[in-house]
Amino acid sequence: MSPLKKIEIIVEDVQIQHITQVVDELNLPGYTVVSDVSGRGTRGLKDGQGLDGTYLNGYIIVICSVKQAEELIKNIKPILEKYSGICVSSDVEQI
To answer: In DSSP terms, which residues pair with 93 in a beta bridge?
Structure first.
């Protein structure tokens, strides 16, 4: 079995399409998006309250090879630095 990585990305909802476009351009196997994610981080509470839910986050999950994960992280890092967000990587096993 080849080693796999799970990349988890939390960004503002308005950046989801930008991130998934990068995933598509890299021809990764796919992704899962969970919209309207709330929580608290270094920028405070993100609960969607206020301007008609514009302060919501999205959660993107990508399972891919180690090499693909490295390429994805390299390509989304500028987006996360400019617009904020978080990305974590973990080793996984497909069952």
So the answer is: none
Tokens of 83: 């617009």
Contacts with 24 (C-beta within 8 Å, 6 or more apart), sequence order:
none
Residue type, 72: L
pLDDT tens string 68-82: 999 999 999 999 998
The pTM is what? 0.85
Task: Express each pLDDT in 1-22 by its tens digit.
Answer: 789 999 999 998 889 999 999 9
- d(Cα 37, Cα 27) in Å, to the nearest integer? 26
Q: Are 7 and 64 in contact (CB under 8 A)?
A: yes
Cα torsion 26, 31, 37, 43: sign: negative
10 Å CB burial of residue 94 (0-12, 13-18, 19+) is exposed
Q: What is the C-alpha separation between 65 and 44, in angstroms, rounded?
A: 33
For residue 58, the SS3 value is strand
